[in-house]
Design a protein that fits this description.
SH3 type barrels; 173 residues; 5-stranded antiparallel beta sheet; alpha+beta; rod-shaped; 4 helices
Length: 173
């Protein structure tokens, strides 16, 4: 949070420098014999302040990335976590590894061969098309409610969890 405040301070400083340049920019002579030097210093302050503000804000945003070891769905109850793959795509746990135990062919024809290890990242659902996009590392899996009903209805026959879940719900490897 300190980076956000520092970014705001840099932005305010840069805005003040911009205001100074707007006020005195066309009348450099009113600043005395070193007016040009003062204007260059103010311009450099302006550029450095805005650059620092942008860098600090970007680094703060970068630190706000999602931790995949925590559940993406805070409403995931203990029973769903316990059931895991038996609960279907809703029981997959972010950061947990799964092994393909029966070949899967997704909606776009991508083959997930037996023995392939996948790390679950997140799941999206598009109700209009009835499609689940299941993001694994190394690649996503696209499953449609109708076309891939066999996989969606019995995901535990296609994927096997690798490792266990600890009592606090975090993946244990």
């Amino acid at each position: 949070m300190k980076r956000v405040y520092a970014s705001a301070v840099c932005f305010v400083l840069g805005t003040a420098a911009l205001g100074f340049m707007w006020r005195f920019g066309h009348r450099v002579t009113t600043l005395g014999p070193h007016g040009d030097t003062i204007m260059v210093a103010v311009a450099v302050t302006l550029m450095l302040s805005y650059a620092a503000a942008a860098i600090l804000y970007a680094s703060w945003r970068g630190s706000q990335r999602l931790d995949i070891s925590s559940p993406l769905n805070p409403g995931m109850d203990a029973e769903t976590i316990r059931l895991g793959v038996k609960a279907g795509v809703y029981g997959l746990y972010p950061g947990k590894s799964y092994r393909v135990i029966r070949e899967i062919k997704d909606y776009y024809g991508t083959i997930f061969p037996v023995g392939m290890d996948l790390i679950f990242v997140r799941r999206d659902y598009l109700p209009y098309h009835g499609g689940h996009t299941v993001f694994f590392r190394p690649r996503p899996m696209y499953l449609q409610d109708e076309e891939n009903a066999d996989v969606l209805g019995a995901l535990d026959q296609y994927l096997q969890a690798i490792g266990t879940l600890m009592e606090n719900g975090q993946p244990g490897y």
